[in-house]
């Protein structure tokens, strides 16, 4: 107690000393500049890992901080049906993102460095979420997404885009609620996943009555539908290969009733291949406001084993990247999550987390590139008006 009190006094003592004469312990401007020149950089493997070495602010504590794109961790995994562990996803994805640095992140496929363009991209840290009470957790996530989504945009344009690192898939319900409350309209969901996640809560065995068990990482889109958060008849599943309940296609009928369009994983092997998948997605979603939800289990478990509910026969990381590059440029992305990375089941080469970090890179590249093109178009329009 005594020692602690003394430590608290120390800064006060040194401050009062500085009042009277020049404080020799404070470096001068030249020294600071030379230190900056000598030490103000990191290698990809050094530094405390924020996503892609981006500047870090705990944005929930700093409502006046502006950004165009915020990377947000949602470490929550107590709504899973099989393997828990996605609460460690945000950490793993940040660690796996370290080879993305602003000085070497020119995306040659998209022709842009998303970290050195018009957009202010920040790592906003994690939302503190209860691991003990899922009702409270959902409330906390919704409040956090609402507050984070209400920040000013760095460029003074559209409201900021939140890119959430999961966490299990149930976090999407909180994100969709916050989006609808902010923008006042329902959105389409583009959902990459092996599974439907539109399962009716009653489809799970539940002889013990409980309202809370309706909220899971397999039901959140059914709940979102019930709450009218989804634009009717627009949302798209891509990469499906799940087993269904019972002895028939009842789960698909429930999915139809909620207005979804399904693209199965196998359909990428049709002669049209990846381009065919892209065209089918865009046929539904081109130009629309889209919440992009990427469950990493859309990838084959050979390429992404570190996940909650793995299903053999998935897409490759390369295929997913190609799809994302094209699609993101032609829809209006208003929210993003990358979920179900559970590093305890990942390989030593952190393949799953690497794939998730790459998904974020491709999506952020696409969004920033779209912003560049929109700016050019606006400039051209203004120039025309002035003539
Ligand atoms: Mn899912």
UniProtKB/TrEMBL annotation:
<dbReference type="Pfam" id="PF00491">
    <property type="entry name" value="Arginase"/>
</dbReference>
<dbReference type="InterPro" id="IPR006035">
    <property type="entry name" value="Ureohydrolase"/>
</dbReference>
<keyword id="KW-0479">Metal-binding</keyword>
<keyword id="KW-0378">Hydrolase</keyword>
<feature type="signal peptide">
    <location>
        <begin position="1"/>
        <end position="18"/>
    </location>
</feature>
<feature type="binding site">
    <location>
        <position position="169"/>
    </location>
    <ligand>
        <name>Mn(2+)</name>
    </ligand>
</feature>
<dbReference type="GO" id="GO:0046872">
    <property type="term" value="F:metal ion binding"/>
</dbReference>
<feature type="binding site">
    <location>
        <position position="197"/>
    </location>
    <ligand>
        <name>Mn(2+)</name>
    </ligand>
</feature>
<dbReference type="InterPro" id="IPR023696">
    <property type="entry name" value="Ureohydrolase_dom_sf"/>
</dbReference>
<keyword id="KW-0464">Manganese</keyword>
<dbReference type="InterPro" id="IPR020855">
    <property type="entry name" value="Ureohydrolase_Mn_BS"/>
</dbReference>
<feature type="binding site">
    <location>
        <position position="195"/>
    </location>
    <ligand>
        <name>Mn(2+)</name>
    </ligand>
</feature>
<dbReference type="GO" id="GO:0008783">
    <property type="term" value="F:agmatinase activity"/>
</dbReference>
<dbReference type="GO" id="GO:0033389">
    <property type="term" value="P:putrescine biosynthetic process from arginine, via agmatine"/>
</dbReference>
<keyword id="KW-0732">Signal</keyword>
<feature type="binding site">
    <location>
        <position position="295"/>
    </location>
    <ligand>
        <name>Mn(2+)</name>
    </ligand>
</feature>
<protein>
    <submittedName>
        <fullName>Arginase family-domain-containing protein</fullName>
    </submittedName>
</protein>
<feature type="binding site">
    <location>
        <position position="193"/>
    </location>
    <ligand>
        <name>Mn(2+)</name>
    </ligand>
</feature>
<comment type="similarity">
    <text>Belongs to the arginase family. Agmatinase subfamily.</text>
</comment>
<feature type="binding site">
    <location>
        <position position="297"/>
    </location>
    <ligand>
        <name>Mn(2+)</name>
    </ligand>
</feature>
């Amino acid at each position: 107690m005594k020692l602690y009190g003394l430590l608290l006094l120390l800064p006060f003592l040194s401050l009062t000393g500085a009042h009277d004469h020049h404080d020799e312990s404070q470096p001068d401007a030249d020294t600071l500049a030379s230190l900056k020149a000598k030490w103000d950089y990191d290698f990809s493997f050094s530094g405390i890992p924020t996503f892609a070495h981006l500047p870090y602010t705990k944005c929930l504590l700093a409502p006046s901080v502006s950004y165009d794109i915020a990377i947000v961790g949602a470490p929550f995994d107590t709504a899973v049906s099989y393997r828990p562990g996605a609460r460690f996803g945000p950490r793993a994805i940040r660690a796996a993102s370290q080879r993305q640095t602003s000085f070497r992140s020119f995306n040659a496929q998209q022709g842009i460095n998303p970290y050195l363009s018009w957009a202010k991209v920040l790592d906003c840290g994690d939302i503190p979420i209860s691991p003990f009470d899922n009702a409270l957790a959902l409330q906390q996530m919704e409040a956090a997404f609402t507050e984070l989504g209400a920040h000013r945009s760095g460029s003074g344009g559209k409201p900021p885009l939140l890119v959430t690192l999961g966490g299990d898939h149930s976090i999407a319900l909180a994100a969709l609620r916050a989006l609808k409350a902010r923008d006042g309209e329902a959105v389409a969901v583009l959902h990459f996943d092996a599974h439907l996640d539109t399962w009716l809560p009653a489809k799970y065995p539940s002889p013990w009555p409980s309202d809370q068990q309706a909220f899971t990482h397999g039901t959140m889109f059914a709940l979102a539908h019930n709450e009218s958060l989804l634009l009717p008849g627009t949302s798209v599943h891509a990469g499906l290969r799940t087993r269904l309940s019972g002895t028939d296609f009842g789960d698909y009928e429930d999915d139809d009733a909620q207005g979804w369009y399904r693209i199965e994983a196998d359909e990428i092997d049709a002669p049209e291949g990846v381009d065919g998948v892209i065209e089918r997605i865009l046929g539904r979603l081109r130009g629309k406001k889209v919440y992009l939800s990427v469950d990493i289990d859309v990838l084959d478990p050979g390429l992404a084993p570190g996940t909650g509910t793995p299903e053999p026969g998935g897409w490759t990381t390369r295929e997913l990247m190609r799809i994302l590059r094209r699609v993101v440029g032609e829809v209006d992305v208003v929210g993003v999550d990358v979920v179900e990375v559970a590093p305890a089941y990942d390989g030593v080469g952190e393949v799953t987390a690497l794939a998730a970090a790459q998904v974020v890179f491709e999506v952020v590249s696409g969004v920033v590139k779209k912003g560049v093109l929109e700016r050019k178009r606006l400039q051209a329009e203004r120039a025309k008006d002035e003539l």
